[in-house]
Amino acid sequence: MSTRLSTHGRLINRGKQISFSFNNTRMTGFEGDTLASALLANDQMLMGRSFKYHRPRGVVASGSEEPNALVNLGEGDRLEPNQRATTTELFPGLKATSQNHWPSLNRDIGVVNNSLSRFLPAGFYYKTFIQPRAFWKHVYEPIIRHSAGLGKAPRADARDPDTYEHFYAFTDVAIIGGGVAGLQAALSAGRAGAKVLLLEQTAHWGGRAPVDGGTIDGMAPDVWVAEAVAALQEMPNVTLRNRVMGAGVYDHGYVLGYERLTDHAPQTPGPRHRLWRIRAKQIVTATGAIERPLCFSGNDVPGVLLASAARDYLVNYGVAPGERTVIVTNNDDAYRTAIALVEAGLDVPAILDARPQGGGALMEEAKALGIRVELDAAVVKVKGMKRVLSVLRGKQSGDGTVEEEIFCDAVAMSGGWSPVVHLWSHCGGKLTWDEAQAAFRPDAKRAPTGADGEAFVIPAGSADGEMALAKVLENAAAAGQSAAGRAGFEKQAGEAAKGEAPDEAPITPVWMMPKGADYKLRSKAWLDYQNDVKVSDVQLAAREGFESVEHTKRYTTLGMATDQGKLSNINGLATLANALGENIPQVGTTTFRPPFTPISFGAIAGEARGDIFQPLRRTPIHDWIDAKGAHWEPVGHWRRPYAFPNDGESVHDAVQREVNATRKSLGLLDASTLGKIIVKGPDAGKFLDMLYTNMMSTLKPGKCRYGLMCTENGFLTDDGVVARLDEDTFLCHTTTGGADRIHAHMEEWLQTEWWDWKVWTVNATEQFAQVAVVGPNARKLLEKLGGMDVSAETLPFMGWADGTLGGFPVRIFRISFSGELSFEIATPANLGRAFWDKLLDAGGEWNITPYGTEALHIMRAEKGFIMIGDETDGTVIPQDLGLNWAISKKKEDYLGKRAQARSHMTDPRRWKLVGLETLDGSVLPDGAYAVAPGTNANGQAATEGRVTSTYHSPTLGRGIAMGLVLNGPDRMGDVLKFTKGDGGTVEAKIVDPVFFDREGEKQNV
Amino acid sequence: MLLLTCPYCGVAAEETELHAGGEAHLKRFGPGSTDEEFQTYLFQRENPRGVHFERWRHANGCGKWFHAARDTVTLEVFGTYSAQTLEPPEDLLKKIRDKRPGFEWRDIA
Lengths: 1005, 109
Prior knowledge:
By secondary structure, chain A is of the alpha+beta class. Chain B is α+β, with helices and mostly antiparallel strands.
């Protein structure tokens, strides 16, 4: 059993007991524990179930690389799945539950997959769920979805009550990792004079060194660490932050840091997580190394863990993972674990060293303590299901013949150490294979390069492949000095601290234990614990032709779990290389992508949530509309009123009422959101002739003209009314969503193509409030306000005039998007609300009715006016919409003209705009397709048209629609069949798209 | 996240301040051009592994378009320059030739 000892535990405070729960069982730990160490102290080795086979799993590591001990943390609004127990600091009241089992962790039905594992090999899903095709949607997918995922997703209505923030930092040197290498690098860079930011992901400085032993400058490592931290804190140019993980390294020295401020103390006020957005001139990655598991049968049985983790739990937390621990290794480092366990009074029945020649000084030390050491030894198999029962020992050079059964309750394994090269690799740093250490290490000659073309990342310490303490410190000092130098700080920082530790004998790579293991053993030798990928799966993938490591990864899911293969990748690559008969460096690695470990969505979102998710643009009339209780709809960053329902009135009824009131008497629309771009200069007319399909340069001052804008690809992109203000000034109205885009479009062409043209543009959208006064009584209202002659003679249709209306400075455009007598009136934005109030007040006698965007849409559709975004979708040209009248034949050129001459654009079979009337008067479904006889090349029903706009017209008392139809304008009166959502069809007749007042008698009065 | 210096306002701008505008130095073909010329102008783009000339706009800044010469692999920025030119400035080309001997981009070398 695993248990708490009365000795050891440098990180825990035995004076402070902490109560927590695991699967609703109350347990206690100490302040300073991680959830993993506290669970072990309570003899809770079984912490979860694996993803595919539901195998019982215990903790295997002690840090961020942990693949097994994932838990649901918290509850309700704060429930978070897949949290690593090894990086969760214990706090009072912590609630954790284990994942991926039913009904319970101990008795899990899904473990049946384990007995079926020989029928669930690599690529099982790809191979099995293909036929019959119809089964995918209704049988396979629901089953797979049900069994997919590890942790529980939070409830759909859960809302994270915590706050998060972003933080910007600029520094000369950012150092990631606060182990002895990071501290030494910070000392060197700081002494050289650089501004240094040192980030450590855990709550503690010094990394592994205090656990691994040796001396630094003659001191015990933790004494040196304390002194180094104190020295750094004294330096004004150095900032130290712990509980901040360097999550990713990006282009040109951009670093993301992930700070967990209150995860260990949830009651503390302030943000929970903070995303550091750092710009550094140089980055030092002192990220250490991660121990590799060994691949033997049963290497996933709870109780089998990394030798370094066993040592961490003992030294840091005073927890023994077992009472009798077998050590299995191919290098000297694991001997440290054996020595530490025995010195703590625990039993180590044997060290199984796979190397025929054995180890060096540490082996001698272990032997001197009386520990039995077997050479050329291997674990053939670990026996036990939910807990290690014994180890079957054989020869590493053998085929799995068992020579002895060693009873034990834990196995501490070490397959060697892999430098943490993730952050080095994120932005393009390349790796080199170190044959002697059997590990990939950073290739200094192929570093990530910055804007100046020079390297901007320097690895330090064991992250650079240096494993001996003395070398780690020398390497880190050089890295710190060099980073400062590259950032422009040349001062000599002095010597590295002097590390001393026993010399270590060379490692012997072991990728399969024992070497000649048969299929049965290989099919229980795990590479990826979390995704259940075994040695046999990778070998099968290789046999099936998956030679690329990237393909093998996706086929087997090796390294694709939440731990991203921190433990499994190198063993997996080596297994693949052996299966292919290639060298490991030839096979290469998969791509390391940020973040290093998962970071919270809250941190990524930062403050951008709720009301401040994005800025809201408000017209001068916005508050009035809001107070009126309008039904809002978002349009770009604006909110526009969809309709103004009265008390007890439905939105639909309100829309119908607004249309009727406007058509019969007087309506009022807040049109302030329409884009207003002023285009000015001697070449303004020439410029607009290029931008619009029609001729704008011939427009007379005082007049308005409707214009269409296309992209260079020929497709309609915007429309609106242009008013010529004077000889060299135009005011271009754009759609509500189009103002910024069209202004940018104008600037792009002016700055990058016609930069010698004398034209200036200003987006004046928000400078003016604009109100449309619409309906047969519109002129009467304006005349009542007084101050301007708005008669048909003085201000005819498509004219505009400046003046004063009811005391307000205004510009009146006589334009109509409704087919009614209509005046759009602009006034300075600061007067907009007062002007609106005045209109409402004065219009009372005509039942003045504010209307929303839906009434606007219906009225324009009744008149057959197109709407950008309804009739257009980025593939529609003006000719499709019967807008040839708005395309100048005289102009040599305009944006889109050449494109509209392409064969596909002139194809007579392009669908063209028509009106549609259902035979039964119902409203066609929006976007519905007209089905034609026969099928297309994909075997789907052929189509001959689609609905682009569809409404119930209160004016006509029936459904009306517009649509694009094959040969539409030549098929007036034809009846088409349109699909409905329920699978049926509805018949509609092709008609003219102008449904109402075809002669324009209502607007030209 | 790239850092590019806007040649108009002098700000070393974060990529989030910028809007990428694709390949630089396109020659516009309008009415009267052949299908091939127009297709090349509208759709054919360089996709180099190495030196590239691009258009950027300092969209959340001074609003100006400019050009950048950049290595798409190493992310080295050789320089930024005015958008109001038909070809990269000679001193910039010399710098690129020194750093990337034998480089070719369209008809520029």
